[in-house]
Amino acid sequence: MNVNDFDISHPMEAVLVSSERITPPDADAEVRHLVFQLPEGAFPYEEGQSVGVLVPGPHEFGSRHYMRLYSIASPRRGESGAPDSFSLCVRRCFFIDEISGERYPGKASHYLCDARPGARVQITGPYGLAFAPPSDPSANVLMVGVGTGIAPFRAFVKHIYDEQGGWTGKVRLFYGARTGTELLYMNDMRKDLSLYYTQDTFKAFEALSPRPHFDAPPALDRVLAKNSREIWDMIRDPKTYVYLAGSRLAAEKFDRAMIAASGTDQAWFRTRYDLVAQGRYAELLYD
Description:
This protein starts with 11 loop residues before the first strand and ends with a strand. The protein has helices at residues 107-114, 150-164, 220-226, 228-235, 248-262, 265-277; strands at 12-21, 31-37, 50-56, 65-71, 85-91, 94-96, 103-105, 120-127, 140-146, 171-177, 202-208, 240-247, 281-286. It has a six-stranded antiparallel β-sheet. It has a five-stranded parallel β-sheet with strand order 11-10-9-12-13, sandwiched between helices. Strand 3 (50-56) and strand 4 (65-71) form a beta hairpin. By secondary structure, it is α/β, with parallel strands linked by helices. The protein contains six helices and 13 strands. The longest helix has 15 residues, at 150-164. The chain folds into two domains: 3-126, Translation factors (Elongation Factor Tu (Ef-tu), domain 3, Beta Barrel); 140-286, 3-Layer(aba) Sandwich (Rossmann fold). Helix 3 (220-226) runs parallel beside helix 5 and helix 5 packs across helix 6. It is globular and about 55 Å long.
């Protein structure tokens, strides 16, 4: 990520209100839900947008800041309805040097995961196009993602049910994780999305890794294939909107499932082109 690609000339100071681990203590992955407070009216955002976190330096090559983008996990009215607040879903990451083989901590993830309530964090943004919800509450919503890509979907679901209200269209979430404890916002530590299971229109389909101890990826393709007929029927409905978030691997698996459902590469990619042209397809992906 090159900070020169983004305008960071007007950073704001966000105060960390709370930091909660949302994976169990014995889980391999540490993922935290962090809530921040900002000055009144300083940071209007919408679902699907990202915030830039500036990690203080000095860093390599004399850089004053290291900037990392994170998807906002709160709906536009604020975390838990608190104005001028937002939350992030942060996984503590490590990277392996391809030459030396040494293991290094991720700058931004460790900076945020180690922060304690009261810490002041420099942020910039918001960046990116929002996941604009359909204006018609009878529209269908199809969401596909993996890992911390669940963050914008948490914001989206909370917005359409809690803020917009009266939603009667189908809402389907296909989400992949390595293990059951990493079903973020849908496990015993955090049940934000599980609360919507009581909604007649909402269904979530979870895909777990078949071999989590060998770092095998989530079996998202299997879950998509199993439900491909309903997904394809939804996509052919002109009232359906499609949203993808997380790694590009999720998008690739979704493409493969839809190629199989539609019959040919050309049929699916022509359909996807039409969805994009009609404003009914949006992606928030990372490599």
